[in-house]
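Lecture 7 notes: from sequence to structure.
We start with the chain below.
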Amino acid sequence: MSKPRITIHPKFTIGDISDRLFSAFLEPIGTMVNGFMYNPKHPTADKQGFRQDVINLLKSTGLPAVRMPGGNFVSAWQWKDSIGPKEQRKVHLDPAWHQYITNEVGHDEYLQWAEKIGTSPIYTVNLGTGTLQDAMDCVEYTNHEGGTYWSDLRRKNGHEAPYGVKTWCLGNEMDGHWQLGSWEKNPVGYGNLCHEASKAMKWLDESIETVACASSASFMDHYPEWEAKVMDQCYDTVDYLALHHYHSAKPGDLLSLLGGALYYEDFINTEAGMLDYIQAKHRSPRKVQLSFDEYGAFERPFSELHPGYGQWNMARVHYAFDPERKYVRHDPDNMPERDFPGGDMVKVLSMVSIQLALLRHADRVKLSCMTGGLQSLAASNREHVWKPATRYAFMQLLEYAKGTSMQVSVDGPTFDMPGYAIDDTSQYTGKNDVPYIDSACAWNKEKEQLAVFVINRNPDEEYPLELDVRGFEGFKSCVHYEMSSTDFDAKSSYGNDWKAPEANKAATLKAGLASTKVKPLSWNVIVFGK
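Predicted structure tokens for the same chain:
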């Protein structure tokens, strides 16, 4: 067995790490809002009905941003019906998730909840059924100081100061056939709308930045041509292009689950190349960056495949209307127990494997919002909250992934990952020579600190690991924090918080060469200091 080695040199940088690289995504699906965020009958509920146990656990994390309030939901949401006295708000059907939207949690409540947990909202406007004027009015209501109808209405509704929302997403997954008001068949039209919306919204508040939608996944048959046509219309007025991806693998196939980070990198590289082409075509000095504002990875069984439909196969499932399907009204005080498959360590490794891929592309990915990120930081049920394993890994990235993202050279054993198809949509080509050791690095020059993040993807082998940082001067200390489990089905629960990462005392540093060991299927943070 070859001994893995990671080499890092100060001259080989990737780019500055954005303060919002590790953020979260919130959409009112099921009990995410009615139950987790909001329950006026909960013992800890404040005057607005927000659960303070959730607020307090999230507030302690330093989470930089949350994208809200959707998601597919937002393409039919009418924000103007969600403000003012609650008894006067309108109840609507949400065709995206077949649920009643009572608007007890409305525009102001979303933004005020973000204030309470100490995070910045990344707000998504409705460009499905909504209009350009709706988007403009939303910016005016939200960010203008006063003296106009909409800004004075905000003050009348109880929030004197502007919310100061900086980042605005121009719709959600607007290429998707599942989206109301989809621009799937007209990317040029959506690009024109993004251009006009971005222009108009910025003329109301020139401090804001805007995010256009890319293809909803790299599986779309029109990817990446669709977003190239979009950006050709709005490159000079938008600031980010939004990417979404959810990686899947068969239950028990941990190598394919953790190797999914490579597909994220393919996606990022393709979109960055496309943006560079449009920049050159427009002879523009502006560099539009990437916002990976929905992502996740999980295990799920293979589904039956339906070959032969060609490019229409993906859409067909969304047009299979079910007359027996009923709309659901979610009771925030009747939050059902959820038992997701897999233990806490599966969730940790699938989460951080993607986050390390984002960190390796910190020069282009400046925003990212993890789907399920809020529950990763504060797990909950109807009554309680607790600390899952994902909380600790997420917070280590928030603490140590600061400064400059560094190139890492990994030498060591590899594996091959055969291609597979989860369903008609999620089909993956194979990958060869995938390193068992997955790594990324952050150099915080201000603190004179180097943090190396390491995943051992191997389910069976513990590896002795060498880290070569001889190019850096003056490092005196090396601390190795590790998280692993001999029981991969183990789960945290209320009263059973996951144990925080522990220091591996075997780690040594001598003349710029560090030596330690990484356990099978483990998460490791190795911090060098002066």
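Points to note: The mean pLDDT is 95. The domain at 406-529 is CATH 2.60.40.1180 (Immunoglobulin-like).
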